[in-house]
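PT: before anyone asks, these are the final sequences, not the draft ones from last week. 670 residues across everything. Please model them as a single complex and drop the result in this thread when it's through.
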Amino acid sequence: MFEGIIVGLSTVLTIQNLLLVFAGCLAGTLIGMLPGLGPISAIALMIPITYALDPASGMILLAGVYYGAIFGGSTSSILINAPGVAGTVATAFDGYPMAKQGKAGKALTIAAYASFAGGTLAAVFLVLLAPFLAELSLGFRSADYFMLMVLGLSLVSAFAAEGEHLKALLMTILGLMLATVGTDLTAGVQRFTFGRMDLIDGISFLLLAMGTFALAEAFMMVLKPNDDAHSRLPTTNLGLDREEVKEIAPVVGRSSVLGFLVGVLPGAGATIASFLAYGMERGIASSADKAKFGKGSLKGLAAPESANNAACTGSFVPLLTLGIPGSGTTAILLGSLIAYGIQPGPRLYIDQPEIFWSVIVSMYFGNMILLFLNLPLIPYIAKLLTIPRTFLIPLIGFFSLTGVYLVSFNPFDLQLMLYIAVCAVILRLLTFPMAPVLLGFILGGMLEDNLRRAITLSDGDASFLWERPTTLCLLILTVIALLSPLLRKIVKSVLSVLNDKRNVSRL
Amino acid sequence: MTVYITYSRVIGVLFLCLSCCYLYFGHQIPLDFWSEGEVFNARSMPYLIGISGIFVAIALILVPTHPTTTNVHQQWRELKQLSWLPTMGFALIIALYGLSLEYLGFIFCSSLFLFCSSAILGERRWLLMVVLSVSIVSAFALMIGWLGIYLAPGDLWMGWLDV
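LR: through. Structure below.
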């Protein structure tokens, strides 16, 4: 292993490759900031440039673009509540409220540090555990995946206010319903398209995210003109004090481990990792801290940010060790490796160790460069919020609409996005949370695929839910997560009865 | 016990109707001969989701709501105080943007969108509005072009070019 690290270091520590990491991070950050252009588009745009480079340098550049794009996506989530990629949706939950409180600079700083820590810790895990985890991830069956998705969905309670869990559940089901619109790829039949050609491919994630978050937010800013006045406050305080560092350090550690492990599973990726980390942190927070979630909690921002970056690194495990792309982005990376004539798999780090280790070592440097590149830029990026609302709101509308249009070039999508945004505004005014809609939508397709596989393999028997220990553990966790609001109520009422009895006996 | 009509319950009733319609249209999904006999086909997931939707909607209607959401009059007063007129204007501009984008072309239509939205939101520095709208959209279009994404000039201008 040490020999490998030295090989990797000697490959990365050349002026050309360090410049490539820098260029990749910068380009990725700038592209990732634009709604609609996520890591997949950023990497796809860079592939032609890599053909002029040797394979190791090309992969180093693309890995830098990947991290940069994820961080760039977080920036638009925090500043204008426009998560351009699914992995940064959870970042907006507490990042945007912080920006509205005039703490945009601090939120971006936390995001930068959490991303750096998540990415770096995960790179260490990758070096130490890659071969072992690759084998373990292959043991994950469709029944386990199905229960993992259900567990992810059951975390909706994390997005609901006290006593409003049913609303969150309803919104999750709405997300699941929207996920079924389009062509069922297994049977090849159209579902809920009502004969419209525009709906044959279904509703895109970007359209739904922009409609429910960015455009709906622009409408809310118009509806409540005095509500966003505080976001115009100067964003001078960018640093973190010792107490804040103490508060988020354990969160970053826990979320990085969780994010990395989820990232290793093919198909799971940064989105589920960020949602699970957010739900986990809210679940274990004290009741005082729990109340801050969704209103600008430091923990609520640090958790998804470190988890999504750790998951990005984790997704390299199946790619480099088994040749299986764990996400859309790693599928493009796999394609570019194959274009170089390199077949990733168990023999990659034996046959071409310089590529295997240089990608891993470049992750450390990529994360470091990303941090040093973004920290000085934060005050300028945060200044975006000081633009007068008469220009800022139209700009949010313009970038959201353009982001969606540039993906499909179909004006119907803009109309659909408007309807979705109007519905989202009405539901938001009636205190229905919007995050579960996205969660249900993202997980809906994967949930159906894995349920179909599991139920077909068990020939219609529901025993697949408890036959395997992993599935059973996930099932138990899901039941606990679903019943926790009810259990909490029961425990509270029992404790209050006991307290009353104690007070009476004292009297 | 007093049963309040709350907005949550109204949404619950609407969602109940939506779930019933969803189940109905889910049942209309065409299946071939082989799929009908399968343990999991294209209708299975919609059935599961639709039935779950009905249960949750009924629960939302029946379960006593949180005290903060029961005051329908207060909620109504709050809703009436919002700036609905500029919001509807903004929504109308977005709808028109979607309808005219392919006809007017990206640069002209987007510049017009930015200009009109700013005007609806109360901006009255006309020259600044024109300069900002055109320069932002042009810069964005240039960058998109640099990334290799083609933006059609618009049917209106194409027609003129043909002539």
